[in-house]
Design goal:
Length: 255
């Protein structure tokens, strides 16, 4: 973790409360952006953890709190599979968040996995640049998860993308998955207005401890690359995920 960036930990007793806090954070980031720019842009995460968050955001509790028609939805990483594949991050978000909210197709920016991985990454970089032109690509919110091997987005241990210094999207072959991934680089994530990890479950506790407390070893713990250039990085965790953090891992908002 960069020295000038202090992780802000939001720890709750149970995952339901973490999800509620994360949903509030999402809402507040969206409302701030709409007040300032008339629209909000978010890069969604994939995998298992965000599915429940997406379902909560699409539920009656949050549906009316966010001006969804002003949103633009991108993906911080994507698996190189068709959109209909159960592994597709886009497919999961579509089913859990985008379709239930009636988000229009023109608000959704999916990675085109029908192209080669390199072309898909290049095309996605171009979509992002077009969306933000003439400004820097600065997402209002980037949502992240954490793998038990300390990867985030598709920044996997010991992959060349960890050393890319441009803020763009890259294709990467991940040996341990024997598959391609398309991912935001760390510099693209770090120039966002807000960056938040959502992590819950005891199986993530060791990864959380390594990323937050060990000396910087980005090859081993790629999530240590995440250090927004303005503001702090936020970590929304349940007590189980924070259980290896010692005194840092105490509940901040018990209900
Ligand atoms: O492969 C991925 O993994 C991470 C963590 O996912 P989880 O299933 O352990 O919650 C996720 O953040 C990333 O978007 C996804 O593609």
């Amino acid at each position: 973790m960069e020295k000038n960036n202090i992780p802000e930990l939001h720890i709750a007793l149970v995952s339901e409360e973490v999800l509620r806090q994360m949903a509030d954070f999402f809402r507040d980031a969206a409302l701030r952006a709409v007040a300032a720019q008339g629209r909000f842009s978010v890069a969604l995460s994939g995998g298992n953890s965000p599915k429940k968050l997406f379902e909560l955001l699409a539920s009656p509790a949050y549906r009316g709190q966010i001006p969804w028609e002003k949103g633009a939805f991108f993906f911080g990483d994507e698996r190189y599979v068709p959109h209909t594949d159960p592994d597709s991050n886009y497919g999961m978000a579509k089913a859990a968040l985008l379709d239930p909210l009636g988000i229009k197709a023109e608000q959704v920016f999916a990675v085109d996995t029908a192209l080669t991985p390199e072309q898909a990454a290049e095309r996605y970089t171009q979509s992002i640049e077009q969306f933000f032109a003439p400004d820097t690509a600065r997402f209002d919110l980037v949502l992240l998860g954490l793998g038990d091997n300390s990867h985030t987005a598709s920044l996997f241990p010991h992959t060349p993308v960890l050393h890319v210094t441009e803020a763009n999207v890259q294709a990467v072959f991940v040996e341990e998955k024997q598959a391609y991934r398309i991912t935001f680089t760390a510099p693209l994530i770090n120039q966002a207005r807000a960056v938040a990890f959502l992590v819950y479950g005891a199986d993530k506790a060791l990864a959380v401890k390594r990323v937050l407390t060990e000396d910087r070893q980005i090859e081993e713990y790629p999530a240590q690359l995440i250090a927004p250039t303005s503001g702090n990085v936020h970590w929304f965790m349940d007590q189980a995920a924070a259980s290896e953090l010692g005194h840092l891992g105490t509940v901040t908002n018990a209900t």
